[in-house]
Amino acid sequence: MKNYCLGLIMLMTGLFATAQDFSYVNDIDLEDKTQLEEAAEAAMECCCYLTAVRYDKKDQQRMIATQYVKQWLETLDSQDILIQNVFEENEYLREMYMVYYAMNYLDEEGNAGERELQVAALEGVVGYCSNSSNKLKMTKELKEISKLINSGELEQSIINSTLISSVD
User: What region, left, alpha or beta, does residue 34 occupy, with left being phi > 0 and alpha being psi -120 to 50 degrees?
Assistant: First the structure.
């Protein structure tokens, strides 16, 4: 009986996880100041989905959620979301970086500094890609970033712009 209940719970969880529909984000006007809270909640929901499921470039909901997060980030006053020369060659990693950046921004309610958010986003991408079931591989660039994280030098590397030269 326990196995039956456990199996049923796993089946229902799987169905709900794959039944996510982000088509509603197309109805949110990111320029409308009255919808700011709704837009932020939708961005967080998209981020949670994108970081919780394995990467599948054919997943239509992933594409919608990723595009929404990108558009939402564009509405921020921040200019330093991306780090120059990092993930320029890999669109998938750049997208995951932006998702983790947005998620950390929302978690901190906009109170974290740019460097803190960049560090947290890089740590998130490394953590995500370290899990082989997520289907995104640890690239040479990510391995170098992981070394900087482990040595505690990541933030200083970003500040000194040595991150750029260390991952080239």
Answer: alpha
Lowest-pLDDT choice from 11-15, 41-45, 111-115: 11-15
Paired tokens of 103? 């998620």
Report the half-sphere exposure of 79 (CA within 13 A, side-chain side): 0
**What is the CB neighbour count within 10 angstroms for residue 102?**
25
Distances (CA, A) of 62 to 12, 47, 59, 70, 95: 20, 10, 5, 12, 11
Q: Which amino acid is at 23?
A: S
Work out the mean pLDDT of the chain and round it to a whole number. Answer: 86
Element (H, E) at 156: helix 154-159
DSSP annotation of 90: -
Task: Record the pTM.
Answer: 0.83
CB contact at 8 A, 144 and 157: no
Q: Which residue has the tokens 């921020």?
A: 76
